[in-house]
Each structure stands twice: as C-alpha cells, then as structure tokens.
C-alpha cells in the first residue's frame, strides 16, 4: 500500500482495495475507520459472499456485469473468485458470455478499463498511452474490434475481449494483473447499427483503411516500444485483411504474436495430438479439411504443416494434407478470388461448392470449423465423416456458442459416439448410448496465458512459431488416459492453472535453449515460474 494512498481513495483503488477485509489496524492507519461496516472478513468469506450474490442472478450477462464491477472495485477478490472455480467462471468472463457483453458494451458501460486510442489522436498516441498509471507493462492485448469472436465488427464494443483475455492471463497462468494492459484501437466501425445508436461509445465514422491505418498501427507499435520496452504485444480479433499483414510486418522485429492465428493453431495442434492418442494414428497420416479459410483456418493449417515437417514431411507435402473451404467453396487452383495467405493451401482439385462433396473426395480424417457460421457441420457432414473414419475428428471451433458449427450432442449422436470432439466454446457432458462423453474446449485459452507466463519468466525477445508447437505438445502430453477414455482431449478446466504453468515451463525451457531469453536461466524453471505466479491474496 503506498504512503499517499490513504483514506477514501484507497477504497476506490482496485489494485489495493481490500474492502471488508481491511483489519482494524489498517483502517486506523489508513484513515478509513468508520467507512466500512465493523466486521473484518477473510478473503474466503468475501469469496463466499460473491458466490452467494451470483447465485441470485438469472442471466450470465448479469453475472458478467457483477464480476466486471467487482474487478473495478477489488482485483484481488475478483481473481480469488475466478480462480476458486475456473470451470464455472471462465464461461462468464470469457466465451460465450463475453460475446454478449461485447455486443451490449455501450448499453451496459460502467467503469473505464484499459486504454482507448482513437485514430483522431494520431501523432499523440504515446501521450495517451502514458496516461495509464502502471509503468511496467509486460502484456498488451490489443484489438481494433473488427472481428470480435464470430460476431463481426463491434467497433469499440470489442474492448471486452482484451479485458477478458488479460483476466485469463492472470487467472489461468498467474501473470500478475498489474503487468497487463488492454487496448482498443478505434479506427471507426462499419457496423451501421452502432453508428445509428446514440449510446455507441466509439468514433462515429466508417473504418479507416489503407496507408492511414498502417501508419496508425506503426505509430502505436512505436509508442508501445518506447513506453513499455519489455512488453509482449498480442493482436486479437482483427479482420484477416489486417491481422495477417500486421503479424507479418512485426513478428521478426518485436516480441509479438497473433492469438487468433498462432494461439488457435497451437490449441488445435494440441487437440490433434490428443486425438491421435485415441485413434492410434500418426500426424503425417492425417488429412485436414477446414470450414473457413481466414486467420484461424490458415494459421492452424500452417502450424499443423510445420509440425508435420518435424515428423519428416517436406512443407509442400504437409500443406498438401490441409484443404480449406470458404464461402465460395473449396480453395482450389482455378479460384481467382484468393488472398496471398490462402495460396499455400490452394491445391489441384475440381471446383467444389459442397462441403459434403469435398469430404467424399478428400476423405479428411479431421474437420475444423473456423467459419463464424453455426450449423455448417450438419448431420450429412458428420455422417460422411463417420463413414470414412473409424474415429472422425470434429472440431467446431467458432465462437461464441451461437456460432459453433455444431453442438457436442449433435456430433456424438450423428457419429454414433465415434466423434473425437472439441469446440471453441464449452459444451456440457453428453450421455449417449449409456456412455458419458466429456467434450473438450478447443480454445486458445490453453495457450495464450501459458505463452504469457513463459515470456514473462524469460523476458523473451520474440514469440516464434516453434514455441507454439512446444506449447501444443506440452498441453497434449498432460492429458490423462482417463480423460481420453471419456473423450476429453485437453486437460480439465478445473486444473487449468496447473496445466498452464506446466506448459509455460516447457515453453520457457525452449526459449532459454534458443537463446531468446533476456534473463539468466534458473536452475529449476518450473519452480521459478511457480514462484512468479500471481496468487490472489492480500499482501
Ligand atoms: N476456438 C478458438 O480458440 C478460436 C476460435 N476462433 C473462431 O474462429 C472463427 C473464425 O475466425 P477467423 O479465422 O479469425 O475469421 P475470418 O473472418 O478470418 O475467417 C472466417 C472464414 O470463414 C469463411 N466463411 C464465412 N462464411 C462461410 C460459410 N457460410 N461457409 C464457409 N466458410 C465461410 C470466410 O470466408 P470469406 O472470407 O470468403 O467470407 C473466412 O474464410 C471465429 O468464429 C472465431 O471466434 C478464432 C480464434 C480462436
Ligand atoms: C477464442 C478467440 O480468440 C476467438 O474466438 O477469437
Ligand atoms: Mg480471438
């Protein structure tokens, strides 16, 4: 507690506020005696009170708002609540609820959190950024709000995503919250509903594109580098027309990554490794067909290809096992509408507009949905996959739940229990034919917090593709046989903190071995990471 922070302001400082847990001595010392009811609570009692309050609420959005208010009031208590039961609270602070919260962000706006950088402030971004009170920032999650989950252009309403992701850096991998900073770049929105809504909080203009946008991004990167030289910059939920070139431009210059491209790729690869433990097959024997050919689809296809190269294929042979299908059909060499980043996965094949026909022709072992469109993995699709494969891999990865390409129940029912299933947003267990199936959440939440902790512990200069393969393997090898037997191909969410710390230690070891660290290698990396991990307690 800083010396200046006495009295009333302390009760409104979320990093240092303890609310009813201030002891009598602290209350007297800080000049807040009389400003609180007499009882002195333990953190456990405070957590129990929040659980009770949440139980009285009917909707997940209301619960999200209660937790968001708590985060603005008392961060220690907020994280103690989330970390008390991650499997329950992750769907509230993250997908699916964060999607609805973003859609209605302007209507439910309460307290400011993070930094908003409007393009109208170009030339002054460093000044605006310097208004953030913390000076040692290690992780920034930044969005421009154009592709928020599968919900499209939400403009500044997308701020819920950087806030939610950074909460999970802390809750899921122990990155101290004061080292994190959520940022929204406001370059306008093309969402007419928001532009027409008097409550919309962002710039009331259409999106800026082209050279002016690129210059804005460049100024932003420079400002971040100048103010926070040890920070890692995570790009989140940009439209692919910007996401792909931004990553290309900065990945070899600064410590940065794109979670939708690389984090998603790693969690998919982890899921594939887990699936192969069930099917007993090799990675190089797989053929992948993606529904969706954007940031996530091409990112996953590329990382899977790079992982196949480690198992002996050439990169061309590996990419030839990854087929992509988008709104105009299969990506094949007669198509003239494709972007450069899609071309490595554009193969010789007859034009094909039907996904089921593509399955019959390509005979994929796995289908991965990253299309933003619900229900595309219909009964015909799942039945075709189940005819071709003994254990078809079915990953509807689009978020939130309302955008999932199919539900867990549909996948198990239509495949007659054969599907190896994981989805971007969570589904409850499914009872089918007397068997209980536990669907995994194939979400980059298994990767980005661990990546963050590894970068923090090593002060890595870069985030490389190879680090994501290390992360994928680390996640997959933690899955127990008992989990696999129930169909679960990821570590259980109840143990996600422990799983992330293990994954972080593996990534950190790799960073040290590659000479990318800016700190000396500790004797025991695992203990070093666990020692650094944030624990929700009053100091
Ligand atoms: N589970 C996880 O951890 C993650 C999940 N995701 C999810 O993946 C989804 C896609 O994200 P991202 O790749 O960044 O988005 P993009 O917009 O870059 O890609 C979407 C792709 O889907 C295609 N598409 C749209 N409609 C259809 C359709 N009816 N049939 C077939 N293809 C279609 C688009 O084609 P076209 O461009 O021609 O319109 C495009 O290729 C989102 O819902 C997101 O939430 C993303 C990251 C992580
Ligand atoms: C999970 C995630 O990053 C997305 O859906 O965009
Ligand atoms: Mg995302």
UniProtKB/TrEMBL annotation:
It holds the Pfam family malic. The keyword Metal-binding applies. NCBIfam families: PRK13529.1. The active site is at 94 (proton donor), 165 (proton acceptor). It comes from the Bacteria. One of its GO terms (biological process) is malate metabolic process. Its cofactor is Mn(2+); Mg(2+). Belongs to the malic enzymes family. Transmembrane segments: none annotated. This is NAD-dependent malic enzyme. (S)-malate binds at residues 147, 399, 443. The keyword Metal-binding applies. InterPro entries: Aminoacid_DH-like_N_sf, Malic_N_dom, Malic_N_dom_sf, Malic_NAD-bd, Malic_OxRdtase, NAD(P)-bd_dom_sf. Divalent metal cations. Prefers magnesium or manganese. It comes from Fluviibacter phosphoraccumulans. Keywords: Metal-binding, Oxidoreductase. GO terms for molecular function: malate dehydrogenase (decarboxylating) (NADP+) activity; metal ion binding; NAD binding. A divalent metal cation binds at residues 236-237, 260.
